[in-house]
Amino acid sequence: MTIHLSIVIFLPLAAALIGVLLGGRAVRWAAVLGSLGVLGYAVAMLIDFDSSSGALQYVTDDAWIPQLGIRWSLGLDGLNLLLVALTALLWFAATVGAAFLGVTRIEERPKLFFFQLALAQSAVLGAFLAQDLAVFVFFFDLMLVPFYFLIGAWGRGERVAATTKLVIYTLVGSLLMLAGAIALGVLSTPSGGQISFSLAELAQRPLPEGTQLWIFVLFALAFLVKMPAFPLHGWMPDGYRAAPLAVLIVFSAVVSKVAAYGFLRIVLPTMPEAALHFQDLMLILAVLSIVYGSALAFSSDDTRLVLGYSSVAQLGFITLGIFSLTDLGAQGALMQMVNHGLVVAALFLIVGLLAARAGGSESLDDMGGIASRAPVLAALFLIASLASLAMPGSPNFVGELLILFGTLESQIVFGVLACSGVAMAAVYMIRMYQRAMHNGIGAGVESREICRGELALLAPLVAVIIALGIYPQFALGRSEATVLGKVAAVEQLRVPVSGGVILPGAQIPEGVPGTPGAPLGPQDPAREPTAP
Amino acid sequence: MSPVTYGWLVLAFPLAGTILISLLYKRLPGRSAGWIGAGAILGAFLSGLGALSQMLAVAPEQRIFEGSLFAYARTLGVDVDLGILVDPLSLLMVLIVSGVSFLIHVYSIAYLTSDAGYSRFFAYLNFFVFSMLLLVLAGNFILLIVGWAFVGAASYLLISFWYRRETATKAGIKAFVINVIGDVGLVLAAFLLFSETGALSYAEVFAAAPEVFSPNEGVIVIACLLILVGAFAKSAQVPLHTWLPDAMEGPTPVSALIHAATMVTAGVYLIARTHPLFEIATDAAAVAAIIGTATLFIAATIALVMTDLKRAIAYSTMSQIGYMVLGVSAFAYGAGMFHLMTHAFFKALLFMSAGSIISAMGGEQSLDRMGGLRKAMPFTFVVFTIGALALAGFPLTSGFFSKDAIIDFTLYRGGLYTVLAIFAYAAALMTAIYSFRLVFRVFFGKKCPEAEELEAGHLHHADPVNPATGEPEGTDVGFPGEEHHIAERDWPMKIGMAPLALLALVAGALQIPGVTEAVTHFLEPTFAGSEYLEAHPTVAEEWRGLAIGGTIAVIGIGIAFFLYIRRPQITPALQARFGALHSFLAHKWYFDELIDACVVRPTAAFGRFGRNVVESQLVQGVLVGGATSVVRVGTSTVRTLQSGYLRAYAALLLIGMCGLALYFLTVSS
Question: What's the pTM value of the predicted model, to 2 decimals?
């Protein structure tokens, strides 16, 4: 099948532009159709994708700014296929929700709102599909613009202060990454050679370790802010409380994944020695995010913050998987990115429904007892909650299991510490479910069942969660071949220098920290008879 | 059909029942949800019998069948199928679980009649049975963990079934979180086994284990201890037991099914299932035996003083599971599984008849309020007494043969196990005392007002209160509702209890020393590799043990008779004389307080510290404030309006990038 990824990226933007030109209600329809088109593409790609190949598919590679060696390079592989599908599904849900179902009431300047929402989708898709660092940076920074307006103009409460924090944090991160990207491109250019930002090319041009280290820090800061990870999550509480719900769904579910994805796509292949050097630090941050996020999630009463802090913890798990620097950990992290996106989007939709029944309040103190009148809502909420706490049988369990297996294999202490997060997740999710659905009926609570439109939005998300729970291999099979190659650069470094395999062309300085005596991953063929 | 196909059917029936009841919950008239639920479980039981007939048709050494539907997670060396294992052990569990569940479903059809959540109850109950069957049929550790967690979730839902009661929802959370701790133990154990053997399916792990691990090597001992964390959390063994007494907040059929007959025995099943590992890590098996003994002793002492009928039976359950754990970890697999089976019969029976009593008492659960119900509830009196006889190990009842078989084997192991056996005998004496304490206090003595009204044909209608707190409560999600009825006169309840009473009496005939060994013999293929398969106390030793056990039971019942019928004034005197001991037991050895002080409060304090100190001072104060002021200073040259500069900043960035792009595009073309 011929699929032009450039069309996939710009379809939402183009549809929204047409809608803006037509005016009136057309903009809602145009935005919905644009995101539906992307969803159609995503389904086609899920079916057509060649799972056996780890190489890029549907590649677009044209000269863009040749003077700077920047190419319009896009491609799809096991790393981004599922994330693109996630983006397509959730943006469609959010757009439909905002356009027709009142998830967020857009009465002022609807044209601008839907245009910004579509622009944000194009930017996210661009970041996921980019195979050139400059293109990635362009889209990564572009994401900030629509979200700035979406939260600042259509948000609630202290939206100005919230957007200020959000923008300062992410802007600083973005600028650091821009500097890092330029440095990476320039410094890796061999003398007399042509500068290139192609990710494949950069992976073949390793920098000396000292240089890698400071560039790594620039990228890591940008990504950790975006995720967000402890202690760089300062913008999150206000930002999540201020954002309109339809925007928050895609923001929390997808945008945070761009950052996690950035580690896998860019940082590990191009800066393997730095990744190894900073492994312990990143794992400490990950575990801190897990423990701290969980602790705040079970001591918050604001439903948005429970989910916000739980996301800090979940993203901590994802970071843990990535920086276990094992195939299994990366595979689990990738799976978990998709799972967390699905689950957190469903839960934020549910928060909207709960607030509508609690007189507009989003505090757990004002909720309670509606399960008897709203059994369908209760059932959907329960399934999403159990998936969120990674109950075995949910897709999140498979993701978390692989992350833990990978981490335990390479750094057993961090794996064991992370397990505390598993138990705490049970506390904060069941607590939230129970306080909203069980016990006595809250004072201002109006118990009523989910209505058809709301069900039409929520049920498909829950259905996807259940389907992935029954058949997680659908996701694992599609990403396996690519994941196998992505962590390889780092893994090979970990084999003792004396008898081990050395990455072709890689200069391994003496005394790479962590190199000798590092534990072997399950990819060691001698110990792994069932390796594919 | 092969046993594996029957195995899938065993799973399919309750799952279909769950889905059907959930989808139709609004349209199901009268008691039909109950009949659908019971029918689904009957289907599972009959499928189990089908598998049994197929299995018995082949030679014993071929009685292990595996099958898988599709790859569940197969990536990068992890290889997990959606696969089941049908062997004598799992099939025995299937038959016990589905058989007892069926009877409890039938009982519940009547018991829950006046409950507002009737359909919901049967949807949950069917889901529970599905999960439990998945747990026992799973062919690998991952699917086991899935079933394990599903069972925990179903238990959570059923404990908090009457969710208007805060006591019930709190108990639900407690059970769920302790279960999740058990899940984590299993996940870590699965990891250690995977990392050493490269496999996750039972067959591959057990085949590789003897070559990979040397006896009592560190890794395998740790893995087995982690398995025990899972087993103990689910089977309510010390110190992970505190959720079980609280779980009595659930409807009584739930206590009968989940917290007596099936789920809480999952830990015993797990130890039996992973016996090839425990036989390598004998140190871990010894730890299990010691904890099992501690539990059976501690729980028996607490059961002596509990005044809440259901909680007294709950502690008795803990104690009996302690015996099973002791049995299977002393490698008396046949005896341990046999006791699991007989206990399922008599303990489910005790809970069901307790439910009958409680509903006649209008929800009252305190022994202090009961008395003289013998004539008012003759059927319940008879079946409860049968259950108590079996529990006490009265000669020739089922519990007599099964419990003493465990103790005999423990004595036979010698050494440390001799000490454990002595504790087990001591607890057996207490068991006889507390079980007949219940019989005498409920059915004999001074008649309570409810008993007198019942004998006159009336039903006492109390205002519904929460039995744990005494607070009045609404009935919109609770029992008893408006049409509260006399439980034992509804025929489905009798149908549910009568077969169990019969089994509690005669099931001992399956394993009579020197005569027959049906259960042990049936299980042999599963334990074929065990060193202890042939190990056996002699028939004479076994009969000697039975004689001791029988004597203890009779003495215990005699003591109870003396204390509660002959000299009822002695017990208050004893309580006063040994006030400290009584209070220690009545506070359940202070386990709740200990866990609260060591785990719950520090965690909550950590959460508060995070929110009040780290979040507000460090994250919001230093970091956010710092970053904001840095930017403010940096942009002071372009500062315009308080909020305007940011917009300008963002716009400049966008314009700059677009300009740059345009410039290069024009230059390049």
Answer: 0.90
